[in-house]
Amino acid sequence: MIGVIGGTIAAVLWGTSGFVAARSARAIGSLVALAWVYIVGLAVALPVALSTGAPEVDGAGAAWAIVTAAAAVASLFLMYAALERGPVVLVMPLTAAQGGLAALLAVGTGEQLHWLAAAGLVAVGLGLAAVIRAPADAAPRPAAAIVLALLSAATAAAALFGSAEAGGAIGTPWLLVVLRATGVVALALPLAASGRLHAPGRAGPLVVYSGLADAGAFAAYIIAASRDGVVVPAVLATQYATIAAVLGILALGERPTRPQLAGVGAILIGVAVVTAVQA
């Protein structure tokens, strides 16, 4: 049950954060927006982690934390870059492939997968393919956004898989600190040193929300995956794509085609099957 609850919370927070991220990336640029997201996340995560005391870290835990942090920073950077170049209704469902990929990694390392759950993953994959496909009379899809979104999914899958191991080793609060601090060091500090990290201005509330929501989503997912395994929370969390796509349709005027709507339906059904069987 913890896996279902944690995955659902992560989906809601990541879905709304992704929608907001699209607006902030287009307003102030993906690099600056993401830098402020990391700064906000670190400002929130560090006091919480300090209140829990220093973690006991062994070599394996440190290695998992480093791998997870590098993959998480790369995936979020790629997602913001994709959202700057393409519509939410296209980008977010593509990045949602991370859940299925993380589930496959978990199965490859010993986690059991029921055959019905495997069928559900196939349905998710077919749904994602339908969301990507453009009708013959439509304008060409932004190729850069598609490539960036798929790369984001691949690196995020590594982060989802590794975070379960790292969270169990050093604790959720300190893993969040590592994830946010890595982003600050890799992105925010170089931008500040070069004079390109300007104030977010009107996008301030957007980056604050994204920073809080992204950190909260990762916390919910890490707790769920550490206790109930990767498959259920990882696949369930992919519903953030549906939430972000719906918000894009309602608020940004993005219009999906019928095949895309069918694809979203297939994703929903596939995730429901995986969650019901594996839980």
Observed structural traits:
279 residues, mainly alpha, 12 helices
What features would you describe in this structure?
This protein is mostly helical and 279 residues long. The chain has one domain. Helix content is 82%, strand content 0%. The longest helix is centred in the middle third of the chain and has 28 residues.
Radius of gyration based on Cα positions: 18 Å
How many angstroms separate the termini?
Answer: 7 Å
What fraction strand? under 5%
Helical region count?
Answer: 12
- Number of strand segments: 0
Element string (H = helix, E = strand):
HHHHHHHHHHHH
- What is the count of distinct domains? 1
Short description:
The chain is an all-alpha fold and 279 residues long. 82% of the residues lie in helices and 0% in strands.
Question: What's the topology here?
Answer:
Layout: H1 2-28, H2 30-51, H3 59-85, H4 88-95, H5 97-108, H6 115-132, H7 143-170, H8 172-193, H9 204-228, H10 231-237, H11 240-252, H12 258-278
Helix pairs in contact: 1-2, 1-3, 1-9, 1-10, 1-11, 2-3, 2-8, 2-9, 3-7, 3-8, 4-6, 4-7, 4-11, 5-7, 5-10, 6-12, 7-8, 7-9, 8-9, 9-10, 10-12
